[in-house]
Amino acid sequence: MGVIINIFKLPELRRRVLFTLAMLAVYRFGVFVAVPGVDRNVMAQLVSQQTGGFLGYFNMFSGGALSNLSVFALGIMPYISASIIMQLMTVVVPKIEQLQKEGESGRRKINQFSRYGTVGLALVQGYFMGSWLESQNTPGQMLVLESGLGFKLMTMLSLTAGTCFLMWLGEQITERGIGNGISLIIFAGIIADLPAGSYQLYQKAIDDPENFGPVPLAILLVVVIAVIAFVVIMERGQRRIPVIYAKRVVGRKMFGGSQNYLPLRINNAGVIPPIFASSIIMFPAQIAGMTGNPYLQRFAAAFDYGNWLYLTVYVALCIFFCYFYTQIQFNPVDLADNLKKQNASIPGIRPGKRTAEYIEFILTRLTFAGAWYISAVCVLPVFLQKDFNVPFYYGGTSLLIVVGVALDTAQQIESHLVTRSYEGFAGPKGPRIRGRK
């Protein structure tokens, strides 16, 4: 309670927290604004029939917007897909790589390109969504009230406007609120579905007490708590490389001579790999399901949620993005040059090339452990669903995102508190919360 009081004692932090909560409330209200010309009840039945399939998985990332056929049904995934494309192009296209090295101005230009890509992807996905909605009409079940080109264009524009609004909302939270806006939007959507998942577990325990009694529930609870504890430990784990600053004399004063450390985290990429991997693996299935093409549907069927090919590709994408994003965030050569410019060195390692090789060696081993840790946590829902027949909200990608975003947001709040001489979340004698960045 004292921590909450301290948060609202700081005017700047109070404004940021209240602004973030207000924007998330706007997002949750928008989830219930339906696309014109559709029956939400019919769509909710279709999604409920595929709780463990593609529609259920996509509905989780949209925060329940898909089951409501909201203008936010596409969620923030088009923006994430556009960001993936721009991140990949920074490695392939030299001009974009140069823009990234220009600092804040270059990043703004890259973000602007990402926004343009978001609009294009949202328009394409919105048109396919309209076509797929029309294909779900049956004589006894009318999902779309009036089919035709007008409905497709209306759906395309509505969903694109919803995605652009979410993109703007996330950027406003990042700039004027607390935490990463895009991650917090996904976080809010997952948290909003937890009560429904808990109620489903309760109903399952009542309807089938023999196969889903107290013992399976207790085992599930232990597994969830153990996974949360494991995620927290891994997210806060780091390798500290000692760094010694050489002494230098300026006038009559001596500076330097201190010893510090360079923290390298086990999971430097954070929640980016599972989000990127989910976005990529969901996109082909989404297009195949919305176009109704039999060849694309057979291709997408091979990547059904839970089968061996899905798991293999998903783990491979998680590992790839762990290495890729870590390489973008931490360049060993740049780190070695910065240490050399600051008259700092690692004990026993020569400055320059040898320092860069040493940092890269440690970073590669840490990323290997972090990549497999993320992959193991993200495939956990498949086994929970097969063995316990529970909603996939518990564990995996959703749990990793929830815990990771919560730790990052708490770390930013604690930074404001500590800066103004207030106690952190753990009190005056407790440990500090470490962020991933």
Automatic annotation (TrEMBL):
InterPro entries: SecY, SecY/SEC61-alpha, SecY_CS, SecY_dom_sf. GO terms for cellular component: plasma membrane. It is a multi-pass membrane protein. It comes from the Bacteria. The chain crosses the membrane at residues 17-38, 113-133, 153-170, 182-202, 214-234, 269-288, 308-326, 362-384, 390-410. It is found in: Cell membrane; Membrane. Keywords: Cell membrane, Membrane, Protein transport, Translocation, Transmembrane, Transmembrane helix, Transport. GO terms for biological process: intracellular protein transmembrane transport; protein targeting; protein transport by the Sec complex. The keyword Oxidoreductase does not apply. The keyword Protein transport applies. Coiled coil: none annotated. Belongs to the SecY/SEC61-alpha family. The central subunit of the protein translocation channel SecYEG. Consists of two halves formed by TMs 1-5 and 6-10. These two domains form a lateral gate at the front which open onto the bilayer between TMs 2 and 7, and are clamped together by SecE at the back. The channel is closed by both a pore ring composed of hydrophobic SecY resides and a short helix (helix 2A) on the extracellular side of the membrane which forms a plug. The plug probably moves laterally to allow the channel to open. The ring and the pore may move independently. Component of the Sec protein translocase complex. Heterotrimer consisting of SecY, SecE and SecG subunits. The heterotrimers can form oligomers, although 1 heterotrimer is thought to be able to translocate proteins. Interacts with the ribosome. Interacts with SecDF, and other proteins may be involved. Interacts with SecA. This is Protein translocase subunit SecY. It comes from Enhygromyxa salina. The gene is secY.
